[in-house]
Design brief:
The complex is a heterodimer of chains A (318) and B (408). Chain A has one domain (10-316): Thiamin diphosphate (ThDP)-binding fold, Pyr/PP domains (Rossmann fold, 3-Layer(aba) Sandwich). Chain A is built from 12 helices and 10 strands. Chain A has helices spanning 10-14, 31-41, 55-60, 80-96, 115-120, 123-132, 182-187, 202-214, 228-232, 238-247, 274-279, 293-316; strands at residues 47-51, 71-74, 108-114, 137-142, 168-169, 172-173, 193-197, 219-224, 254-257, 261-264. The relative contact order of chain A is 0.12. Chain B is of the alpha/beta class. Chain B has 2 domains: 12-254, Thiamin diphosphate (ThDP)-binding fold, Pyr/PP domains (Rossmann fold, 3-Layer(aba) Sandwich); 263-405, Rossmann fold (3-Layer(aba) Sandwich). Chain B is 38% helix and 17% strand. Chain B has helices at 16-26, 41-52, 66-79, 89-104, 129-133, 147-161, 191-198, 225-237, 239-254, 279-289, 310-316, 337-346, 369-385, and strands at 12-14, 31-34, 59-62, 83-87, 110-115, 140-143, 170-175, 184-186, 215-216, 261-264, 271-274, 297-302, 304-306, 322-327, 354-359, 393-395. The chains are: A alpha/beta (318), B alpha/beta (408). Chains A and B meet through strand 2, helix 4 and helix 6 of A and helix 3, helix 4 and strand 9 of B. Strand 2 of chain A pairs parallel with strand 9 (215-216) of chain B. Chain A: Keywords: Oxidoreductase, Pyruvate. Chain A: One of its GO terms (biological process) is small molecule metabolic process. Chain A: GO terms for molecular function: oxidoreductase activity; thiamine pyrophosphate binding. Chain A: Residues 53-222 form the Thiamine pyrophosphate enzyme TPP-binding domain.
Chain lengths: 318, 408
């Protein structure tokens, strides 16, 4: 295991982007670029990075340009995880055969996918990679919508959000189902480490990424990625939107080790009402109409209940 | 190679799947990622046994689908090593998306495709529907007539695809069950001879070479996409001389001759059957037996299905008067693909022969020497009259009234 990178402060951390360059065409205010920089900056080790089809991929590798100063591959929408698993297997094979010298430091294998690529179309591939135990990290850039194709619902889209394929209208409040609980599903795969992170809580995030890199086996990271375009806030408000998500506990920050040991890693001093989180994003605007307001109460109840559940799990140590 | 060598007899009795597995073992493939499907399953089963007993030292991963098998192969190949997998039919259909990705990224993988019908109706037996499905995927495609061919061509697939002028993936086709499950005598090479023939894998733009970061699988717009596809097309065309060179080297090593277009009794022939796979050998028996009747019959088969040898076929067929193109795949509302290709090759030639299209053998239905002789006899009438005496397209061997969907 290589030495863990020491990160002193945000200023040096934020300027240490040696491998993800600014020359991309992601929207101003896109949290994807912040998260990717935080993941890549967490280590000095060599990286083999995969990206599923999505905003990150189409905005960072438009021939003849690339934003990636590290090994990088994109195949399809669904199989970013398996591409990285294949590269990881090749690394093992070539070391076994002596074609890569044992003195060469082990690289880190990372796959990025959006929530569509993770929760929906790529789910089978990720499940296969985790079941086989490849030594890799999968990072979901969870913006709760198919942003690359213009804002359709995914199985990560939360109830009540208005999307182009689940629009709010005179007889509909938008998306009808609750967001899939991907972290629990991945923990249930027996993954040695899964965690939920948000780019605004960067220290927490770096700690988890470094812990993930130090873990042998498949690691799943669900990163909340506030989307200025589809959540419809101003580009300079990304971190504010992220703060509201974690402080309202809509997106709680926690980790599960070895499928069972659950640790809550951030407890807001002042818990913000879910109403504030929803009010900040015009995708939920219609929930504030009198006929829909009951959904806001239901949101709050569901968030409270889940927070209670997480705390009990943490206490019980099972 | 750190793996154990395998002592092989001069002559082994192997089926086509064993041939694939042995070729993969001798090529010392670095990563095999696979998912089982009939009739190709035994390729990966045999390989798993070699792995379990220390005869191969790479990574063998049984993934959760054929799509994942090819996805892992692409990731592994881009990382910088030799990769292979095997599949058939629906598995091939599931892989198709990634086949295009693999060739577009110019990664020389090898796919052992054991040809089988595509559902529905579900059918595990052999026809060429899956081979046809992959025909525009940008892979080089080799075609076997028997188990020996399957062994030889799977070995040669690595050498062809990895050639610096080519750098493309290669499909090694064989007929489901007819070749894959029929034990035949096969003369294998010794392990080190086979490996030395193929040579060490030379990585190009390897992701595991950290001195030079690479970006694989970019996005292009109209400004570059066409140029990329043109270069890919050029690389496929560049495979012709490479294939010839590899076939020549292989002949020097083994005495076994392979040609881009295989022919039987072509010299002075009036009529010819053009077909793929095991039908070639059956048709050669029919052609030989017809000599007594005074019918000068030839059998022609493109050993290379992609890139398709249009020029070579046009040259070979310039003196033939009547041709039957035999397509072992459902035509789907037009003539068969082989008929189309051969017609494309001959349309601009001086002496255009008359051509029939026979759809046959779907879902594993047999074609016999007797039937092939009848087809040759029909062709002899066409040759004599200088025109087709029956229907252009026929669904040969289908029960019920004779069916044709292309008549003049």
């Amino acid at each position: 295991m290589s030495n863990q990178k020491v990160i002193k402060n945000l200023k040096t951390f934020s300027t240490a982007a040696e491998r993800f360059e600014g020359s991309h065409v992601l929207c101003p205010g896109c949290a994807h670029s912040i998260i990717v920089r935080e993941v890549l900056n967490a280590t000095n080790d060599n990286l083999v990075v995969g990206a599923s089809t999505g905003c990150l991929e189409v905005c960072t590798a438009i021939y003849p340009h690339t934003s990636w100063d590290c090994s990088w591959i994109h195949i399809g929408f669904e199989n970013g995880s398996t591409a990285i698993a294949g590269a990881e297997a090749m690394n093992k094979a070539l070391r076994k055969k002596g074609r890569i010298s044992p003195d060469t430091p082990e690289p880190k294998f990372v796959a990025f996918g959006g929530d569509g690529a993770t929760y929906d179309i790529g789910f089978q591939w990720i499940s296969g990679c985790f079941e086989r135990g490849h030594d890799m990290m999968y990072v979901c850039l969870d913006n709760e919508v198919y942003a690359n194709t213009g804002g359709q619902r995914s199985s990560s889209t939360p109830i009540g959000a208005s999307t182009t394929t689940a629009p709010a209208g005179s007889t509909s409040y938008g998306e009808k189902r609750n967001k899939k609980d991907m972290l629990q599903i991945m923990a249930a795969h027996g993954s040695p480490y899964v965690a939920q992170v948000a780019p605004n809580k960067w220290k927490d995030m770096v700690k988890k990424i470094q812990k993930g890199f130090a873990t042998k086996g498949p690691v799943f990271i669900n990163a909340m990625s506030a989307c200025t375009t589809e959540w419809k806030f101003q580009p300079h408000e990304t971190i504010e939107a992220s703060d509201l998500a974690v402080d309202s506990l809509v997106f709680p920050l926690y980790e599960i080790v070895d499928g069972t040991e659950l640790n809550i890693t951030y407890r807001p001093k002042n818990i913000v009402p879910v109403r504030d989180y929803l009010a900040f994003q015009p995708r939920f605007k219609h929930l504030f109409k009198p006929e829909n307001e009951y959904l806001i109460d239901e949101w709050q109840k569901r968030v409270d209940k889940y927070w209670e559940y997480l705390q009990r799990r943490e206490e019980a140590r099972v | 190679m750190n793996s154990k060598q395998m002592e092989l007899n001069e002559v082994e009795v192997w089926d086509g799947n064993t041939c694939n597995a042995q070729a993969l073992r001798q090529a010392s493939v670095d990563v095999v990622a696979a998912y089982p499907i009939t009739p190709s399953t035994n390729t990966v089963e045999n390989y798993a046994t070699f792995h379990a007993n220390g005869y191969v030292d790479g990574e063998f991963i049984m993934v959760e689908s054929e799509h994942a098998a090819m996805s892992a192969c692409v990731g592994a190949a881009a990382a910088g090593g030799r990769v292979a997998t095997a599949t058939s039919s629906q598995g091939c259909a599931l892989m198709v998306e990634v086949l295009y990705q693999c060739s577009g990224m110019r990664l020389p993988a090898v796919l052992c495709l054991v040809n089988r019908a595509l559902a529905a109706p579900l059918n595990v037996n052999g026809d060429h529907s899956d081979m046809y499905l992959t025909r525009d995927a940008g892979w080089i495609q080799l075609d076997s007539f028997n188990a020996q061919n399957a062994y030889d061509l799977t070995l040669m697939a690595f050498k062809i695809g990895e050639h610096m002028d080519v750098r493309l993936p290669v499909i090694s086709n064989q007929d489901g069950f007819l070749t894959s499950h029929t034990a035949q005598t096969v003369r294998p090479l010794k392990d080190e001879v086979a490996y030395n023939f193929i040579g060490d894998y030379v990585p190009v733009n390897a992701m595991l070479d950290f001195s030079k970061p690479v970006t694989h699988g970019v996005q292009t717009e109209h400004d570059w996409h066409f140029e990329h596809k043109a270069k890919q097309h050029a690389a496929l065309q560049a495979a012709f001389p490479v294939v010839e060179e590899v076939f020549k080297e292989f002949k020097e090593l083994t005495g076994r001759e392979y040609n881009i277009v295989e022919t039987h009794n072509l010299e002075g022939a009036d009529v010819a059957i053009i077909c793929l796979g095991t039908t070639y050998e059956t048709a050669t028996i029919a052609a030989d037996e017809l000599k007594e009747e005074g019918i000068k019959a030839a059998v022609v088969s493109p050993r290379l299905f992609r890139p398709f040898p249009l020029t070579q076929l046009a040259q070979k067929l310039q003196n033939v008067k009547a041709i039957a193109c035999m397509d072992r795949s459902a035509p789907g509302g037009t003539v068969g693909a082989l008929y189309n290709e051969v017609a494309g090759a001959l349309i601009n030639t001086e002496a255009r022969p008359v051509m029939r299209n026979l759809i046959y053998g779907l879902g594993g239905r047999d074609i016999t020497v007797h039937e092939l002789k009848d087809i040759f006899r029909d062709l002899a009438k066409d040759a004599e009259n200088g025109k087709i005496t029956g229907k252009i397209q026929r669904l040969h061997g289908v029960r019920g009234p004779e069916l044709s969907f292309y008549e003049l």
